[in-house]
Amino acid sequence: MDYTLSEIARICGGTFTGEDRRVTEVVTDSRNCGVPAVPLFVAMRGARHDSHDFVDGMYARGVRAFLVERPLDMRDGAGYVVVENAIDALQRLAADWRRRFGGTVVGITGSNGKTVVKEWIAQTVPDGVKLFRSPRSYNSQLGVPLSVWQMSDKNTLGIFEAGISQPDEMENLRPIIAPTIGVITNIGEAHQENFISTTQKCLENLTLFNDCEAII
Hints:
Elements: E1 3-4, H1 5-12, E2 15-18, E3 22-23, E4 25-27, E5 39-42, H2 55-60, E6 65-68, E7 79-82, H3 86-99, E8 104-109, H4 114-124, E9 131-133, H5 143-149, E10 157-162, H6 169-177, E11 181-184, H7 198-206, E12 214-215
Parallel strand pairs: 4-5, 5-6, 6-7, 8-10, 8-11, 9-10, 11-12
Antiparallel strand pairs: 1-3, 2-7
């Protein structure tokens, strides 16, 4: 990942103000940040939290680039991109980064077993292949873009999981992963409560593979 804030604003449809900082990493959790060299801190509003409350603390720790959901007071040397929805903005940026990647991407979906299959595939990759695989089980609406953003243009193979719990969520994840090869583990009762039937959930999962060269 390597973007200026003005580029990020253009890609995600946001408004840019302040210093046009260049960023190479994303931070969404202020508690787990060591702070990387040139991070973008993403502030989101949730049902029980508002990470805009931590912007001052992140600025004090050296962060100078912010993606936020509401205008904030300007700080010396800082740049801001204001968007309506930060997760949507991250998804758009990750999809842009994926389009720049020239290697092979494997996308894995299913009701369960995704992480195990991902690790099995990773273990069979020949020496010399520059592999990136999503950390742990980063397969959600937030986890997938954060995973794809970590993929380098030096990698030649990426392996990513995609999980859904609501209708239409896979349509958001499809352009972010844009798999060359698709793997489906199984479709069962897990996360079924928001789908009319397992058939509907199966069709939603298969959306990930619309443009695949091969499906396993």
